[in-house]
Design a protein that fits this description.
2 domains, single chain, Arc Repressor Mutant, subunit A, 3-stranded antiparallel β-sheet, alpha+beta, 6 strands, Aspartate Aminotransferase, domain 1, elongated, about 180 residues, about 55% helix
Amino acid sequence: MEEETEEESTLKTERKVKKAAQLLFFRRHRIPGVKGWELKKALGDDYMEVIGVLNSALDKLGMEVKRISEEGGIGEGGEEKTERDRFMIVLKNHLVEKASGERIDEVAMLSATLAYIISKQGKAPRKAIEEFLSDKFPKHRIFFALDRYIKQGYLGEDERVLYIGWRTRAEVDRKSLLDLILAS
């Protein structure tokens, strides 16, 4: 078996980093990001090292690859768990105020919902959240928005109880959100 030269190894790594960036930047599904098993299939067994190299390149742009466990928390654990985790590119510092593309009232509804859930130690009955939001928003919009946030991963739902979803853990700085709400 021939030994890879350093130049060939560098070119191979560069190709893998480009492929990882393409997988992570461009959406193929309704939910952003890529599962670990998809990265492993496309990049090989060393996909975590490739993600590390991509992370250092994205750092210059103020972005990072975040690994999120859909069951809860920032992804940690063994190789088997890594393959089930979702990887996505997020902004490190939210310098762009208009990055979401959502309507301001939709963002306000999500922010209020997250703040309410956080104030209730991470879980709240859906009915209580609907009543809380109905003071400021039309009921039909509330039902539609909550369902959409659940589908998008911002919220999770178990037996009519809502909790913070995996995507909120990835994209929302909860401490800053609460500081902004308390300051207003």
